[in-house]
Amino acid sequence: MSNYYAQITSPEVPMNPAWMAYFDEKVPTLSGGEGGIEIGGRPQRKSFTEWTGNTPLKLDFGVVIEGFAEADASGRVVTAERSVEIRVSRLRRLASSPGDYVRPPLVNVAGASFPALALDVDWMISSVTYGDAIVSDDGARVRQDATISMIEYVAADIMLQKNPVVTGKPKPNYRMVLVKRGDTLPKMAARLLKSAKRWKEIEKLNANLKLRGPKFPARLIGKKVRVPLR
Prior knowledge:
The chain is mostly beta strands and 230 residues long. Helix content is 11%, strand content 34%.
């Protein structure tokens, strides 16, 4: 691979050949990986410091996605004004989430212009900013400038609780009420829920009794039924 190329591969998105483009004139920049120190105030005393963990690495570099004529060592032209739309589409795929609640694919970089530390990191592409473009007579892009920003992938800690602690049985959302002779569902609703129109709520809460309101069947006189608490 030429020292002038930036190469991106992904263990999660098969691509053959790997995605490649020329580096632009700016040197790739690597930042982050340190810090994570916060200062907390304390009344009338010296502030305290707390280390919360190093920040993920960030990598920014510019590329020129080129489609003009290229020649090999013998001077033979191997490409000629080829559209770069496919390579732009592949880059967009590497930078995009494949679906809801799914992170973008992990990628790795290679190229002599990258800092050595960047070569052994699993990255995610956080953004692609497209710059100037050259379009051929037929409307296809044959050159596209772009700045690619990446952030180090650091897996989140997962805490598993095998046996959840049960502090007690949940409180029921109903109370038991005795059905008196002459009671109907609307009367009970008016008396206990302040609205006769809510009798359907009592009926629904006692679905196992197969009520067919608004009257109580004779078999339930002297028995208790569920009534919503409020």
